[in-house]
């Protein structure tokens, strides 16, 4: 038997005539549909679609194949409902992610995943330990990257840059017209990222700038919260402050310079990379990353 995931992808794409629409229906990425269709074509040893720009057309043989397997999916749904199994057996997905990323990006979006997949229980733990030093066997690990770890498959899903951010109330009290005006402000630092401010000041052409005060926190999310509360200016990762900027809690006083930053990536042990639940969650993250990139321009 071919893969059930491949058959589902083929059935949806063939019925809808679009990989994009199939991806939306199955809540995965366009790339995931393409990959599953290619796997099925390789398994069958024959092409299934003719590609025409944004649409796909079934080959005559594939059209006959779809007519056979389409009703089978309907019968599966009917049988499941008839025997009281419409609610899938609950499974738990364990995720280990960075604390600031979890608090400011993942948690606000996680409800969307739960709505579409109520049978999946997600357990999240936070840490900044390197992937290879994690003792527990997590299903998905989220860290910066891209990095390579033996025995793990890595996939990026969210890019970002770093730039100064502060509260609108702070700008009313102490206006910022140019980067040199930061001499009158408090710069918010994070002890684990000591080079961020010096690198940005150097790129801004004011490496010797001395601020009015410096306040250092041991966690990055504390520095960002201090910025929201009007205590000073923080170096904000674009992905993690975009929601605050959209809500008016933070502003970016300067268009640039922007510091390049590492992408967020999923790391999955090779033995778990093919697990349906892992594939589902990774695809959801990648789709959310694509949506974020297309709707946020800081």
Automatic annotation (TrEMBL):
GO MF term list:
DNA-binding transcription factor activity; sequence-specific DNA binding
Q: Which GO terms describe its biological process?
A: DNA-templated transcription
> Which keywords belong to this entry?
DNA-binding, Transcription, Transcription regulation
Which superkingdom?
A: Bacteria
Q: Does the keyword Lipoprotein apply?
A: no
Mind telling me which InterPro entries this protein's record contains?
LysR-type_TF_proteobact-type (IPR058163), LysR_HTH_N (IPR000847), LysR_subst-bd (IPR005119), WH-like_DNA-bd_sf (IPR036388), WH_DNA-bd_sf (IPR036390)
Asked whether the UniProt record includes DNA-binding among its keywords, one would answer yes
Question: Residue ranges of the HTH lysR-type domain?
Answer: 2-59
As recorded in UniProt, coiled-coil segments are: none
Q: Which family does it belong to?
A: Belongs to the LysR transcriptional regulatory family.
User: Which NCBIfam families does the entry mention?
Assistant: PRK11139.1
Q: What is this protein called?
A: Transcriptional regulator
Tell me what organism the protein belongs to.
Caballeronia temeraria
């Amino acid at each position: 038997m071919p893969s059930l995931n491949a058959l589902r992808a083929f059935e949806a794409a063939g019925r809808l005539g679009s990989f994009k629409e199939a991806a939306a229906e199955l809540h995965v990425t366009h790339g995931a549909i393409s990959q599953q269709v290619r796997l099925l074509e390789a398994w069958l040893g024959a092409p299934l679609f003719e590609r025409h720009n944004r649409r796909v057309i079934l080959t005559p043989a594939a059209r006959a194949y779809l007519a056979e397997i389409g009703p089978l999916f309907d019968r599966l749904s009917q049988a499941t409902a008839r025997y009281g199994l419409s609610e899938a057996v609950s499974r738990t997905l364990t995720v280990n992610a960075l604390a600031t990323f979890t608090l400011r990006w993942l948690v606000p979006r996680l409800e969307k995943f739960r709505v579409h997949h109520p049978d999946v229980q997600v357990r999240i733990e936070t840490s900044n330990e390197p992937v290879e030093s994690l003792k527990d066997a997590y299903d998905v690990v989220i860290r910066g990257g891209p990095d390579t770890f033996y025995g793990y498959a890595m996939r990026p899903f969210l890019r970002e840059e770093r730039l100064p951010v502060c509260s609108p109330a702070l700008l009313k009290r102490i206006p910022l017209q140019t980067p040199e005006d930061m001499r009158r402000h408090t710069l918010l630092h994070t002890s684990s990222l000591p080079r961020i401010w010096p690198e940005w000041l150097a790129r801004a052409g004011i490496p010797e700038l001395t601020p009015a005060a410096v306040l250092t926190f041991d966690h990055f999310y504390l520095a960002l919260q201090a910025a929201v509360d009007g205590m000073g200016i923080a170096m904000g990762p674009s992905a993690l402050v975009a929601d605050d900027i959209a809500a008016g809690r933070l502003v970016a006083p300067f268009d640039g310079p922007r510091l390049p930053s590492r992408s967020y990536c999923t790391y999955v042990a090779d033995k778990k990379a093919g697990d349906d639940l892992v594939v589902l969650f990774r695809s959801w993250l990648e789709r959310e990353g694509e949506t974020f990139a297309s709707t946020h321009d800081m």
